[in-house]
Amino acid sequence: MELLLERKKVKSALGKSNLPGLDYTINPYIGCSHGCIYCYARLYCDARIAKNWGKIVVVKENIAETLLKEIGRRKRGVVGLSTITDPYQSIEAKERITREVLRILLENGFKVSIQTKSDLVLRDLDLLFEKKEIVDVGFTITTLEDRIAELIEPNAPKPSARVKALEKISGEGIKTWIFLGPIIPEISEKSFEEIVEIAKATNSLLYYDKYRVKPFMSGYAKELAEKARRTDWKEIAERIKGLCIAKGVEFTSGFGDL
Ligand code: SF4
Predict the structure, then answer these.
(1) Regions of the chain short of the pLDDT cut 70
(2) Is the distance from CB of 255 to CB of 209 less than 8 angstroms?
(3) Mean pLDDT, the chain, integer
(4) Closest ligand 1 atom to the C-alpha of 117?
(5) Domain map of the chain by residue range?
(6) Beta carbons of 154 and 108 less than 8 angstroms apart
(7) At the top level of CATH, which class does the domain 4-253 belong to?
(8) What are phi and psi of 67, to 5 degrees?
């Protein structure tokens, strides 16, 4: 896939968050090369990036310096890294902006909650391990079938790689969680049991959320949206809860009950 990379300078780094458990958000990039077909983050980007979702990424090239300048006047709190892009999308291997942001936040006493689909987060295990009491790492897993994931999350690392990274990070004593969402109709269900087992084995909290139908959805995403409309989400939620209770896994619905 041809990726168009752009750069911009920003005047602020931390944004206020309304998401549960987060005081701030920080997004080192605009757009996300993982290009998930259902991704709602495009709703928060300009029309050109949204229309070419997954193909244009803007690097906020001075975000680390900006963060350093503003951090002194910010009350300490929990920072979500990130909420509208994947902080460990592939360009991060070269840019290393997420790493710098993470280092600055942790060194200055902010708690950091990472959400990613990428095993590139393992590169920063040194920082995570050093500050493990103020950091948590969550992996989004919608299916455990690598071949199916390629259809819906075309440029993201395979679920099998995410699981290995999750196991490694949890094995280092760092708090972990799994985001089972959006639940892909007829697809995610096949992995429910195994995902709950992985949550148990890694002592991870399990968040779950349904597939939310949005007007931008087209092609396969729209087909899934039709299935989502016909899905009995209450039954799905009950099934997930039942599995978690049976295995002793802590769970919570990501954004209100299904
Ligand atoms: S990894 Fe997250 S932010 Fe990136 S395209 Fe997929 S859902 Fe969107």
Answers:
(1) 1, 254-258
(2) yes
(3) 96
(4) 1
(5) 4-253
(6) no
(7) alpha beta
(8) -60, -45
